Amino acid sequence: MDVxxxxxxxxxxxxxxxxxxxxETAVRGNRLAASSLLVAILLVLWRNTILTLPMVLASLxxxxxxxxxxAFRVTMLQMPQMVALLNGLGGAASMLTAFVAVAGRDxxxxxxxxxxxxxxxxxxxxTLSGSLVAAGKLHRLLPxxxxxxxxxxxxxxxxxxxxxxxxxxxxxxxxxEMTLWLLLVAACALAFGTLFTLPVGGADMPxxxxxxxxxxxxxxxxxxxxxxxxxxxxxxxxxGAAGLILTRVMCAAMNRSLLQVLMGxxxxxxxxxxxxxxxxxxxxxxxxxxxxIERGKPVTFDPVxxxxxxxxxxxxxxxxxxxxxxxxxxxxxxxxxxxxGKDVKFAIHPVAGRMPGHMTVLLADVDIPYDRxxxxxxxxxxxxxxxxxxxxGACDVVNPAxxxxxxxxxxxxxxxxAHEAKRVIICNADTQxxxxxxxxxxxxxxxxxxLLGNAASTLEKLINELTLRISAQNGLQDG
Amino acid sequence: xxxAVLFTVFILSSAVGYRIIRQVPxxxxxxxxxxxxxxxxxxxxGALAATAAALTTGSRVLGAAAIVLxxxxxxxxxxxxxxxxxxxxxxx
Lengths: 479, 92
Fold this sequence. Notes:
heterodimer, A: 3 domains, 6 strands, elongated, B: 92 residues
């Protein structure tokens, strides 16, 4: 009976995820998964007859309220750190649960629960510390740049080996000795998670977050083994699979193998041999230039005129748009162009931003219809036919060096073929290389105009000029 | 439950989950991730069971902490995913 209920709940969760695969049904899918989980929680409460335990109920209430407050206060720009933080809490909960379930047991529990208990504490602990470091970096509490400690890789390998050994040896202990053993496992795991995430830089976050997401699922799943709960095993495994898929998608979009990432070979460390100086992001609000400035490059066409004449426009948003808080201006420009009957699309690179799909939620937040957002594979053939491409705070994802410059870290990374468009307008903070540290040859091309400075104010000027000329044109037509 | 049964459940759900999730378009990757994140809070089920079975006050307190953290994960995750998904709309 119980098994049947658990299976149907797992199926309901899977159905929910399936519904989350299309924007029209996604809200329902999410709610179905949420209600399935609620039923599961009530079931466990009822089955263990702990409904009366006030501490349990109070904990449930406190957690729910905190979760709601977090969920409604977070901005879309902060989504990556929110997800990282929640990941970490999930990992912590799995670690504590396994600890409570296994520690201090006097009766000799079997080998399997020893191993699973140790594993759950280990994976949960890694997820906790790794996620907190990631969230700290994303929230700028920690430096965004990769932090390289001497011998980091040696220490992490040693810790991993130590964990492996500890978990294998665990079956020897019982009672207070076992509590000590679990504490040791937790300490090693926490240290490993921290050291593993410290060398990761800003643009590598999409990969890291996906991986941590996967790990939080795996931790929950192993916890299911510890407490003998099939639904927990199933749901955790599903999350683990989801995180793995996203990790692989992100790796492909950055042209790196999962193994390289697991080995800690971040873009920055691949760069260490190169001479380029990586700048942490494409556009920073701190470098607020007074307005559009040209730097050593003659203007080859009038950006306003070209936008007026263009029939098709593709906008390429990057993390710089988010940092410069230029989403509203991008939407205004979209509205102006759309009203003129132009075909306006957004080209979305999978790793633009700090987590998978980050650009999409930022644009959805300012009411850009999702059918205007086009993914890399679909949009690339359209660039040669496109009159104007407008790049807002993106560098590496449109860097043609990825196609031409063999031997550079960026070579082979799939990019948006913005350089194939007839004209390109770039609204970036500066001409510094992006995160990859590789200069963007696009900046020097003849059919490219650079409008340097804060993206929001650059775009605002562009929109003002556009509307002025449009009303002037309309005035001419009227008169 | 028998370990082998749990292991089968693990393998099956991973495989089915993998197949279903692979079909989610990149457009929805952020909400997918935060939704998955919420689901990873199922560990609250384990936390509840473990707390119920806890023998000492110390482990009960730890268990309560696990419940709080997992609930933040579950409720926060689902709520923020709902908020995000409601923003998605097609062209008029």
